Amino acid sequence: MSKKLMEAASFIRSAAGTRPQAVIVMGSGLGSYADQIEADAVIPYADIPGWPQPTAPGHAGRLILGRRRGVPVAALSGRLHCYEGYSAAETVIPLQTLLLGGAKFVFLTNAAGAIRTTFRPGSLMLIEDHINMTGMNPLTGPNDDTLGTRFPDMSGIYDAELNEALQKAAEAEGFYVERGVYAWMAGPSYETPAEIRALRVLGADAVGMSTVPEAVAARHAGARLAAVSCLSNLAAGVGSEPLTEEEVLEAGAAASGSMMVLADAFLDQVRQLNAS
Ligand code: HPA
User: 3-state DSSP call for residue 176?
Assistant: First the structure.
């Protein structure tokens, strides 16, 4: 695996002069942040050796390399999911390539269903911890020692200092962010109301079909991580409406301004941490 990742990493290095310090992964309907980056290079995943192709709606499949808020960044516009037929290990190939290339900070976003009854659709939630309900893990298989250790610790996976900075930025802009635990379900079917009740009992506040594989891969490689859910809908049985893909994409688009504030706050924090 390492050899394949190295090949992709050197391809990317030759395509852009800067080495990305931070990686941004935008979820369903949240991809417009990529337009905010002063791009040095935009590379279709199809051109990068060994990278799988995204097939999900709202996931373009482009790597954007450039700068934003003075930080060399890579944005992965186009996420890979296990429900597309990829193994968890395959879904993190793009992120691991960039981690191998030296990126030390990761910002993940997603669309998620709200389980906690006080949550309102359209708001954002800082992920404080997760529950992996899938039985899958991106580190299954031989360990890549160049990236990290065989049995990485997962406590404190979502960086408390970064979350504080994001919360402060939201307050300064006059919007509220929730905090909570994200449960990863394999999808692609949405959950049943009984599954949502079970997830609530287990301590989950929101549910979605992504993010956890990248979070685990980021932690494995020793990167500092923040992740934000756009609560696009009430989870099954919490509200009375059936769930649709359209409402998820619409909520993502409606929240993209607030999400942009948080992504910028994340990069400001990266710049400060690098300077100190
Ligand atoms: N469940 C799972 N994934 C999701 C949901 C949901 O309710 N909303 C957006 N992604």
Answer: coil
Three-class SS state of 85: coil
Judge residue 122's burial from the number of C-beta atoms within 10 Å of its C-beta, 0-12 exposed, 13-18 middle, 19 or more buried.
middle
What are the helix (H) ranges across 203-255?
Answer: 212-220, 245-254
How far apart are alpha carbons 3 and 11 in whole angstroms? Answer: 12
109 CB within 6 A, ligand 1: no
Task: Report the predicted TM-score, pTM, of the whole model to 2 decimal places.
Answer: 0.94
| C-alpha Rg value of the chain to the nearest Å | 17
Residue nearest to atom 6 of ligand 1 (CA): 113
Q: Which residues contact 159 (CB under 8 A, 6 or more apart)?
A: 224, 225, 226
pLDDT at 56 exceeding the cut of 70: no
Q: Report CA(20)–ligand 1 centroid distance (Å).
A: 30
Establish whether residue 209 lines the binding site of ligand 1, counting it when its CB lies within 6 angstroms of any ligand atom: yes
Buried b (16+ CB within 10 A) or exposed e, 128-150: bbbbbbbebebbeeebbeebbee
Answer yes or no: is pLDDT of 211 > 80. Answer: yes
Of 233, 238, 244, best ligand 1 pocket probe by most atoms within 8 Å of the beta carbon = 233
